[in-house]
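Researcher: I'm preparing a figure for a lab meeting and need a structural model of a single chain. I don't have an experimental structure, so a prediction will have to do for now. The sequence is pasted below. Please return the structure as C-alpha cells so I can convert it later.
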Amino acid sequence: MVVSDDVQEVLRRIGRNLMLYQEIEMRIKFLWSSARLEGSLSELRSQTVGRQREVSKESMGQVAKRLTKDVLTRPDTPEEDQPLGTSTFRVQFTLTDDGSIEEEIANALAARNELVHHFLLRWNPASRDSTRKAMAWLDEKHRAAQSLQRTLRCAVECLQAAAAEMATPAFELRMEQTRLCATAWIETTIDLCLSHGDQVGWLSLSDIDRHLWQQHPDAMQNLEKRYGHSTLKQAMAASGMFEVRDLLVRGGGARTDIRVRPELERPDGRATVTSFLESFSTTERKETP
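Model: Understood. Here is the structure written out cell by cell.
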C-alpha cells in the first residue's frame, strides 16, 4: 500500500498534536501537585511526591478539573487566608484567571478527545479535500494549544525556581530564623536585653529563662516540640537575633549571657524583629551582581 505525502503529513501532525497535549497534561499535573502544600520544609517535599503519585494515573480531564478547582481563581475571588502554626509553611501558587485559561484548558481537552476518539470520522485518507481539511484542523488546534502550553510553562518555571530556592541551606536557615523571630517570646527577650542588660546589652540567660517561664509558659514547656530546640540557649542562637557567650564564674561554675546583635539596634537604642528581617534583604541586595 502506497501512502501519499499528504496522508503522511496528516499522520505527522497527529503525532505533533498528541505530543503537545501530553506536555500540557504533564504540566497541569505538576502545577496541581506543587501549588497547594502546607507543613514543614521536609513535609512539603513529601507532599509533592504524594500528590504527583495521586494524579499520575488520572486522565487529562480529571486533573484539569483539579487545577480549575484548586489553582485557578478569578480576580475578584479573595484567596483563603488561614493562620499557620509556628512550624508550618504554605506554598500557595495561584494563576489569576479571567476565564481565558480555564477556557483554553477546556478547548485543549475537547480537541484532544476529538483527535483521539473521533478524528477518523472527519478524515477520509482517500480524499484529497478531506485530507487538506484535516491538516488545517490539526494546525488550528495546535496553534491554540501552543498558547496554553506557553502559559503553563511559565507557571511551571516559576514553581521550579521557588522549589530550587527552598532546597538550599540558606533558605532553610532564613525560614528557621524568620519562624523563631515571629514568636512573642523572642520579642520579650529583646525587650529584656535592652531594658535590663548591662552597659553593652548582655543579660544572663537564667534571668531571661525565669521571665519567659512567667510570661510565656506554654511556649517554654513545648520548646522542642514547637521549635525543634531542646534548650532555650539553642533556640536563641538559632534565631539569629542574639549573640550568645559562655563565661566562667568564681567557684568553677559557668554562666551563659545573651544580647541583641549590636548591628540590629536602631539609633534610638531599640531593636526589633523588623530590623532583623530587613537585614536579609540588605544582604541579598549586596550579593546581587
